[in-house]
Amino acid sequence: MAAFAHSVLFMMLALTSVIALHSTSRKRARAESVAEDKIDTMEIEPSTHSGVDDAQWHQPNNLLDAKLEQLIEKMDARMTKLSQEVKDEVAKLNDGVAKLERRVLLSERVEAG
Prior knowledge:
Elements: H1 2-24, H2 34-38, H3 54-112
Helix pairs in contact: 1-3
């Protein structure tokens, strides 16, 4: 049970990391150096005047976004499945505890009677 709980926690951590990376991926395109802060006119993306097609420049970013989206969907599906498995396991354990409590009550009644 402890290993299962650890795997659930690991999957939650992994999903959180993927979501955090995905949500900050576009913001990380700009370098955060002091030198760049001084140069306000520096271009992050190549201009269409330089001969580089915008679609060609954006293709790796779009592929990365698509891959991250797939990973998020897979992680979400796994988390949903693991969450359901945990709920089922907890329900089984609760049933077992309830049976044990009933047996204890019955044995106490037998001993008292």
